[in-house]
Amino acid sequence: MSQWPEHVRRIVAEQTDSTLDEARRWDLGAREHPTWILALHQTAARGRRGRTWHHPRGNLAATVVLPRPGRPDEAAKRSFTAAIAVHMAIEDVIGSARGVALKWPNDVLIDGAKVAGILLESLSPGPGLAVGFGVNLVDAPEAGEVEPGATAPVSLLAATGMRVSPQDFFDALGPAFHRLENLYITYGFGLIRERWLHRAARLGEIVTARLPREEIVGRFAGIDGLGRMQLDTPAGPRAIAAADVFF
Fold first, then answer.
1. CA 204, 210, 211: angle at the middle one, nearest 5?
2. Nearest to residue 203, comparing CAs of 242, 185, 229?
3. Chain centroid to CA 153: how far?
4. Which H or E run includes 12?
5. Residue 77 backbone zone (phi > 0: left; psi -120 to 50: alpha; other: beta)
6. Is the peptide bond before 175 cis (omega within 30 degrees of 0)?
7. Which among 69, 59, 167, 71 has a CA at the least distance from the CA of 114?
């Protein structure tokens, strides 16, 4: 397992409402260097669009705050570095990445089931960005607890038979994320895009992108330089900036 990055602080909380909210209380966006928060238990975890995130003890809940993530469009691309980092951490802790794939825009799958989600929040009024990670290490919601048609959840334990502690996964995730962050800063999004596509779920297959006012069905052709999903549809190419994707 890699050494923890120099100049990157980490905080471990026995319990909090949400690591994202904890980051705001600590005003971590105003600090000079990135800071991580690991919570061993969350009482009010949330996912995208305010949805409840299932977090029993034994699962991973962590947030990293980047004080200077760049322009809003650059900050948003950190969802891709974060997803690759989870993929790398899984491979590190279990010794294999077989069956692990990345679902656009920010989920991690094992054998087609969701094992992890990522949530980005700006820390206005400052420039800081909070990147939240939720990984089902030992437990996952029942199928009936997620919205109809959504990707079925799974835990790392159920999928692989291996029990990994939040602290051990955290020790693998932090170094992986910052190796990718350094690549992003040095070489730009192009290299991150290539690495994400190498791990992408359903690339070249038919998927459905559900937007607030329409559903778009097409062949998943990749992502562009802005991180938008590229769909080849009967009406022509479409670039999707934000949507729920269904297989």
1. 125
2. 229
3. 14
4. strand 9-13
5. alpha
6. no
7. 59
By the 8 A CB rule, do 84 and 93 touch?
no
User: Cα dist. 125→29, 116, 186 in Å?
Assistant: 9, 29, 27
Coil vs helix vs strand at 41: coil
Asked whether the beta carbons of 134 and 61 are under 8 A apart, the reply is: yes
CA distance 240 to 191: 21
pLDDT bin (cut points 50, 70, 90) of residue 62 is very high
118: which DSSP letter?
E
**For residues 54 and 146, is the Cβ–Cβ distance under 8 A?**
no
Say if pTM beats, i.e. exceeds, 0.85. Answer: yes
Tokens representing residue 191 in the block: 């290299």
Angle at 193 between CA 238 and CA 112, to 5 degrees: 75
Query: Which residue in the block uniquely carries the two structure tokens 């800081």?
Result: 128
pLDDT digit string, tens, across residues 108-153? 999 999 999 999 999 877 789 999 999 999 999 877 667 767 789 9
Compute the distance between CA of residue 56 and CA of residue 134 in angstroms, rounded to an integer. Answer: 11
Q: At what angle do helices 78-94 and 166-187 cross, to 10 degrees?
A: 140
CB 65 within 8 A of CB 28: yes
Q: Which two tokens stand for residue 172?
A: 């693998």
